Amino acid sequence: MNPVKIGNRLIGPGHPTWFVAEIGINHNGDLDIAKKLIDVAAYAGCNAVKFQKRTPEVCVPAEQQGRMRETPWGYISYLDYRHHVELDKDDYNAIAHHCQEKDILWLGSCWDEPSIDFLEQFDPPCYKIPSACLTDDNLLRYIRQTGRPLILSTGMSTVEQIDHAVQVLGTQDLIILHCTSTYPANSNELNLRVIPRFLDRYKVPIGYSGHEGLVYTTLAAVALGACLVERHITLNRAMWGSDHAASLEPQGVTKLINYIRATEVSLGDGEKRLYPSEVPVMNKLRKDRH
Question: Is the dihedral of CA 160, 20, 27, 251 positive or negative?
Answer without folding.
Answer: positive
